[in-house]
Design goal:
- The protein has about 325 residues and is α/β, with parallel strands linked by helices.
- The chain folds into two domains: about 200 residues, Rossmann fold (3-Layer(aba) Sandwich); about 100 residues, UDP-galactose 4-epimerase, domain 1 (Alpha-Beta Complex), CATH 3.90.25.
- Helix content is about 35%, strand content about 20%.
- It has ten helices and 14 strands.
- Helix 8 packs across helix 10.
- Bound molecules: uridine-5'-diphosphate.
- The site of uridine-5'-diphosphate has 15 residues, from helix 6 and strand 8.
Length: about 325
């Protein structure tokens, strides 16, 4: 039977891939997105878009008051680590306030399940190779701290009101819909894979490699890239868990790739080398972030279907090749 879901930030990169997965299985979706970074064109026909802030109490009352919600998925957020190091209070205030207002409205309108888009930026200076859910939380930036604040608010919403929640800490979301319907389009783009692709295609100046003196095998930062369609699938799978309890999961492939490896892979798939220069380190970047996702696999049966870096880069490359200007203006 078809269910009804609220997706805040559903016009954004990861959110839009979840919206597509929900529609593909026949569910009804309502998106709240202020379109500051999201794209109307990322939403397929059949989705109702309410343009506004996910932390606007009047708007939330109007939308959530319609009732019949199976769950709320919360993506709407400022999400750039580097920017948050320059504008810490904006990140702390806006992300925490939006999340807490949404949680409060969900409780008031009887929504029983809540899924939070969280981050690996909770784990600066991890004390182990695979970062799992028992790794101590040390946010690496005000962005990570703001997500942690919302995670904590969810803990209290569960204890006091019984709102069941899943906090999904993504490592590096990457790739695009394997059918090519939607992809990644940020303005400005700051993420490694789309920038490396555009540099290879000659659309932008050479890529800056942010530091080659890290304590990693080739000196560049190591990240765990996880396909955005596998992240969308993870959101669907946690819904079953949430019928009985709250949960927290770290989501990645459990395998790290250095910036140089990404550059080599993009060059091979694009058929042209990625022009690049070594620049200084970027503030807030830990040397290595690799997920331990055994809990998610064991408890939900989740198995990433696009785990290889080749697959991730190939889907991203296909979308950017077909959409030189991204989605265009809203
Ligand atoms: N990176 C880089 N040059 C760029 C963008 C990113 O060297 O132009 C590096 C960055 O320092 C990090 C990795 O690529 O080690 C992934 O960065 P991204 O911004 O894609 O994701 P993040 O790890 O910040 O979530």
């Amino acid at each position: 039977m078809s269910e009804r879901f609220l997706v805040t930030g559903g016009a954004g990169y990861v959110g839009s891939h979840l919206v597509l997965a929900l529609l593909d299985r026949g569910d009804e979706v309502v998106v709240i997105d202020n379109l500051r970074t999201g794209h109307r064109a990322a939403l397929p026909a059949g989705v109702r878009l309410v343009v506004g802030d996910a932390g606007d109490p009047a708007l939330l009352d109007a939308v959530l008051g319609e009732g019949g919600w199976s769950a709320a998925f919360h993506f709407a957020s400022l999400s750039l680590v580097g920017e948050s190091m320059r504008e810490p209070y904006r990140y702390l205030l806006e992300n925490a306030a939006t999340g807490i207002r949404l949680i409060e409205a969900c409780v008031r309108h009887g929504v029983r399940r809540f899924v939070l888009s969280s981050t690996a930026n909770l784990f600066d200076q991890a004390d182990r190779d695979l970062i799992d859910e028992t790794t101590p939380i040390v946010p690496g930036s005000p962005y990570g701290e703001s997500k942690h604040m919302v995670e904590r608010a969810l803990l209290w919403a569960d204890r006091i009101h019984g709102l069941r929640s899943a906090c999904l800490r993504y490592f590096n979301a990457a790739g695009a819909d394997p059918q090519g319907r939607i992809g990644e389009d940020h303005d400005p783009e700051t993420h490694l894979i789309p920038l490396a692709i555009d540099a290879a295609l000659g659309r932008i100046p050479p890529l800056n490699v942010f530091g080659d003196d890290y304590p990693t095998p080739d000196g560049t930062c190591v990240r765990d890239y996880i396909h955005v369609a596998d992240l969308a699938d993870a959101h669907l799978r946690v819904l079953d868990v949430l019928t009985t309890r709250s949960a927290t999961y770290n989501l990645g492939n459990g395998r790290g790739h250095s910036v140089r490896e990404v550059i080599d892979t993009v060059g091979r798939i694009a058929g042209r080398p990625v022009p690049h220069v070594v620049a200084g380190r970027r503030a807030g970047d830990p040397a290595t972030l690799v997920a331990g996702s055994a809990r998610m696999r064991a408890e939900t049966g989740w198995t990433p279907r696009h785990a290889s870096l080749d697959d991730i880069v190939a889907t991203a490359h296909a979308w950017r090749l077909a959409h030189p200007g991204g989605y265009g203006a809203n």
